[in-house]
Specification:
The protein is 42% helix and 22% strand. The protein has 11 helices and 11 strands. The strands form 3 sheets. Strands 3, 4, 5, 6, 9, 10 and 11 form a 7-stranded mixed sheet that branches. It comes from Paenibacillus lutimineralis.
Length: 293
């Protein structure tokens, strides 16, 4: 088994068409067929079903795919590390981040990183936590930056907290509570609360705090995007509890008002996560050293 066969297999799993795969790999269709047949013989099982003119992955093919991805990506990481071992004049910084982290927390650090190391290509993936973890497991990325409310396999992954993110109550400046110095959670029970969807780690965290005080928001609206929540609050749609960092500009310019809640402080850690046994690239190690708030 060689790398070329694995790359051919992975390319074919994406397009499921021998002609298209041959075009993508700059080779002939018979060459693709021979590579796949050879790989199937080595594994002793069919990886694709050919039904009529259509191609489908077999169950064995689906099982084999993530392992093939890990091998290809790990080799790519090894080559990248060797290239970066001399200096950081070129290479790639590849990592994933949750929406809040990627949109609000990291741009300043990435700007500084880019100024110091202009030859390093930055590849930041912003997507769901589940997808990010899958990418980390398959070695598509070296590093995750996510909330500490997202569960990880601590036997395999190392999580380090580098920032404490405070969440604050925000409202339109014309809201009835906006002139108060503080408020109680119980003052908010009848308000329209704008929340992330149920599967969101932020939503789960907030509800765990609400439950401690037996607070239930009968009137609530689910909005999946933080920017949309901010705009909803600005325009009087309701109130919300969001990252203080994410609304700092809106508060400074008078578009939103924030007041403390007497019963509790909402605070979560932001972690960087990587494989415990993985040798991180020089670019990634340098980036981690800059995660200082």
């Amino acid at each position: 088994m060689n790398i070329s066969k694995l790359q051919t297999f992975l390319t074919l799993t994406e397009c499921l068409n021998f002609t298209e795969a041959a075009d993508l790999l700059y080779c002939s269709q018979p060459a693709v067929s021979m590579q796949i047949q050879s790989l199937e013989q080595e594994l002793g099982t069919a990886l694709f079903d050919r039904i009529g003119k259509k191609l489908y992955l077999t169950e064995q093919g689906k099982l084999f795919k993530p392992y093939a991805e890990q091998v290809i990506n790990l080799l790519g990481s090894a080559i990248e590390h060797i290239q970066q071992s001399k200096d950081l004049s070129h290479g790639t910084l590849s990592f994933g981040a949750s929406s809040f982290v990627g949109i609000y927390l990291l741009p300043r650090i990435l700007g500084e990183f880019n100024r110091q190391f202009p030859g390093i290509k930055i590849n930041m993936q912003i997507t769901s936590s589940m997808h990010l973890l899958n990418m980390l497991e398959s070695n598509k990325i070296e590093l995750l930056i996510i909330s500490d409310q997202i569960p990880i396999d601590e036997a395999r992954f190392q999580a380090t907290t580098f920032y404490q993110d405070e969440l604050v109550l925000v409202m339109n400046p014309g809201h009835r509570l906006a002139r108060e110095q503080t408020c109680s959670l119980y003052d908010l029970r009848d308000e329209m609360m704008l929340l992330k969807p149920k599967k969101s780690a932020t939503r789960s965290y907030l509800e765990s705090i609400f439950s401690k005080y037996d607070i239930t928001f009968v009137n609530h609206m689910e909005i999946s995007n933080l920017e949309a929540i901010k705009q909803g609050v600005i325009h009087g749609l309701g109130i919300s509890i969001v990252s203080k960092y994410a609304v700092a500009q809106e508060i400074e310019h008078g578009l939103l008002t924030s007041i403390p809640i007497r019963e509790t402080v909402f605070q979560r850690g932001i972690n960087y996560v990587h494989y415990k046994s993985k040798h991180l690239s020089p670019a990634t190690r340098q980036f981690i050293s800059m995660l200082d708030f």
